[in-house]
């Protein structure tokens, strides 16, 4: 059997693949006498193959056209305000089209080879229009997600630092959210990206993101923090030394929202096998024990909040059960 597989002739092109699929389909129906393919069948398969090739070429051509729009010289003589708005609309549409096309991993790789990622970083991430900046960040995220080849390329081009700066300082909240999304695609499950993230003080960016007025930015910052602490518990001490426990408790005191589940999860990570994390949570000035007890009462009976409730119970058990009683401690 192994010898037979070693002698198998593998298809060298799409037509060969298609022929092999037809043969495999016939084989699954049981042995049958092999008959010559009719001319009608041959023409049909040729047409199908041509459409497959044409579709792939069409997508590459679409990407080239989008890059042509993004490459236009903006320093040329300015037209009317209406013409300028039309040009901005065209650039935004080009970025949206590229993001959609690059959900296909082959297209993401092709865009990199066409110089599209360089163009995105050099012209679009720093563009004066927020609509261009956030769409460029979204495109980078689309290309980088689950694509180590593209991730390494972007990291080598210094994309992570630019994205962290946008996530930290951009005046537009959508730009900050999309930039953080791109950061997440470059550092999660990516050791080189995490090293880059640490060298640029990325945890401080997440801390400030959780203090933002933007609910989406707070949520994405807390989620990425939780993910990194779960995957890389060796960085707990770095995070604790920044005063992260105090910041997370401060977020918990804000009006209840979806971000709280991620914040509580991050606190659970910080106290697990960490005396320093436990001691930080016991700081009487934080009032965390009372806050957690109140949250347990608020969440009881809410099926959609079971994970958040579980985190509260785990934190109470890890940090406060068995502590010496004092006169100011609330009754339990």
From TrEMBL:
Cellular component, GO, one term: endoplasmic reticulum
SUPFAM superfamilies assigned to the protein according to its UniProt record, in alphabetical order: ARM repeat (SSF48371)
Chain coiled-coil ranges: 70-111
Gene3D superfamilies: Leucine-rich Repeat Variant (1.25.10.10)
Any one Pfam family match given in the protein's UniProt record, by short name: Fes1
Chain segments carrying region Disordered: 1-36
Signal peptide residue numbers: none
Domain Nucleotide exchange factor Fes1: 14-111
GO molecular function, one term: adenyl-nucleotide exchange factor activity
Superkingdom classification of source: Eukaryota
Alphabetical GO biological process terms: animal organ development
Keywords on record: Coiled coil, Phosphoprotein, Repeat
Quaternary assembly: Interacts with the ATP-binding domain of HSPA1A. Detected in a ternary complex containing STUB1, HSPA1A and HSPBP1. Interacts with PGLYRP1; this interaction blocks the cytotoxic activity of the PGLYRP1-HSPA1A complex.
PANTHER family to which the protein is assigned, alphabetical: HSP70-BINDING PROTEIN 1, PROTEIN FOLDING REGULATOR
Full protein name: Hsp70-binding protein 1
Native organism: Cyprinus carpio (Common carp)
Primary gene name: hspbp1
């Amino acid at each position: 059997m192994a010898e037979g597989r070693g002698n198998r002739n593998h298809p060298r092109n799409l037509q060969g693949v298609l022929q092999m699929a037809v043969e495999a389909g016939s084989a699954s129906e049981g042995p049958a006498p092999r008959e010559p393919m009719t001319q009608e069948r041959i023409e049909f398969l040729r047409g199908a193959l041509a459409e497959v090739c044409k579709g792939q070429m069409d997508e590459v051509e679409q990407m080239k056209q989008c890059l042509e729009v993004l490459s236009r010289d903006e320093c040329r003589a300015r037209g009317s305000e209406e013409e300028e708005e039309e040009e901005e609309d065209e650039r935004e549409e080009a970025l949206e089209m590229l993001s959609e096309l690059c959900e296909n991993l082959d297209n993401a790789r092709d865009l990199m080879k066409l110089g599209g990622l360089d163009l995105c970083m050099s012209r679009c991430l720093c563009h004066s229009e927020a609509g261009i900046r956030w769409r460029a960040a979204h495109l980078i995220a689309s290309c980088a997600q689950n694509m180590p080849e593209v991730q390494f390329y972007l990291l080598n081009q210094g994309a992570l630092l630019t994205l962290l700066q946008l996530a930290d300082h951009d005046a537009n909240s959508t730009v900050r959210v999309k930039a953080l999304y791109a950061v997440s695609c470059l550092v999660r499950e990516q050791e080189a990206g995490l090293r880059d993230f640490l060298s640029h003080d990325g945890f401080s960016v997440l801390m400030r993101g959780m203090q933002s007025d933007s609910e989406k930015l707070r949520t994405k910052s807390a989620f990425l923090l939780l993910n990194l602490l779960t995957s890389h518990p060796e960085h707990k001490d770095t995070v604790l030394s920044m005063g992260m426990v105090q910041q997370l408790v401060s977020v918990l005191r804000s009006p209840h929202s979806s971000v709280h589940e991620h914040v509580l999860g991050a606190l659970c990570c910080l106290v697990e096998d960490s005396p320093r994390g436990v001691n930080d949570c016991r700081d009487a000035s934080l009032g965390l024990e009372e806050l957690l007890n109140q949250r347990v009462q608020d969440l009881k009976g809410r099926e959609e909040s079971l994970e958040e409730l579980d985190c509260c119970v785990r934190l109470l058990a890890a940090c406060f059960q068995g502590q010496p009683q004092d006169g100011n401690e609330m009754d339990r």
